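Lecture notes, unit on protein representations.

Consider one protein chain, 108 amino acids long.
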Amino acid sequence: MTETPYGIKQLSLPVRQSATTERDWHCLDTRPTARPTSAAERRGREDMQGRLARAFPDTPLAVLAAVTAEALDFFSSARIRHYVPVLAFKRASQRLAQRPPEPEAEGA
């Protein structure tokens, strides 16, 4: 534990620090330092599909998978990959929200 200039005790965490962070306690540099691994990107894709399934429970899984793949493909050339799952989820959610409802089966 370290104490900030404001008298607040703070847990010391290992983060990349710039030259100014020793003076500015509130400005720790926590930006990602490496590209996400393929396993992390796969977990992000799976998490995104699960969140979409909860948000749009009446949508078939095949449609969710197609919209997820389309949203991720849109960001495939992004140089900064860390935020792609968040941006792709927003894009896929907007796409599914604009989608017309499925026709109900007759004679149920």
